[in-house]
Each structure stands twice: as structure tokens, then as C-alpha cells.
Amino acid sequence: MPASVEIQVPLAIVNGKVNITATNTQQQLSATSVPLAKGVTVKALTANAATVYVGAAGLDATTGFPLDGGDSVGIGINDLNKVYIYGTQNDDVAYISN
After folding, report:
1. What pLDDT, in 10s, does the model give residues 28-83?
2. Which of 7, 32, 52, 63 shows the greatest Cβ crowding within 10 Å of its Cβ?
């Protein structure tokens, strides 16, 4: 008999833009819990002045994953509030998930 497989279907698209509010200070993509079914894609906007770093709590310019303007990365994570960014004040990232 074949094994039963449960497929989790996303209920909605989650997307937004986050502005870095302070230079060289880590910042969560979301201060509240936002459950994700399929992880998240984070993109540094092309107009950014500098590299933005993405990662877990505690990141900085030496430990984060670097994103130059226009670069993006997919992160397999179950909640948006577990993703942090670090960079230059007034630079932005956009994110999308489903």
C-alpha cells in the first residue's frame, strides 16, 4: 500500500518591503510571527547604497549572506520573524513567499 503524503498548500501570498532604519544594526523582516509554508525570497533593491546582509539573529557584515542591489536569495524557513537584515540606513529589501 502506498504511503500517504500530506501536501501543504499555501493560503496566501506574503510579500512586503522593509527599510533598514539604522546603519550596522540587525533588524527583523517582521517583528511579529508570520508563518511561511514555502520559505521566503529576499531581494536587495537596485537603488541601495551598499550591500545588505541577510541571515539569522546575531548577523553582521562578516556573518550575513551578502546581497548587492538586485541580488536575491531563497531561504527555507517557517517564519518571517526568523530572518534578519543588516546594512545601511534607508536601504531596502523586498520579500515574497507563498
Report:
1. 999 999 999 889 999 999 999 999 999 999 999 999 999 999 999 999 999 999 99
2. 52
- Secondary structure of the chain in HEC code, one letter for each residue: CCCCCCCCCCCCCEEEEEECCCCCCCEECCCCCCECCCCEEEEECCCCCCCEEEECCCCCCCCCEEECCCCEEEECCCEHHHCEEECCCCCEEEEEEC
Residue 26 has pLDDT above 90, yes or no: yes
**Amino acid letter, residue 60:** D
Cell of 94: 523586498
> φ, ψ for residue 75 (rounded to 5)?
-125, 120
Q: Are 79 and 11 in contact (CB under 8 A)?
A: no
Q: Cell 515574497 appears where?
A: 96
The pTM assigned to this predicted structure is 0.88
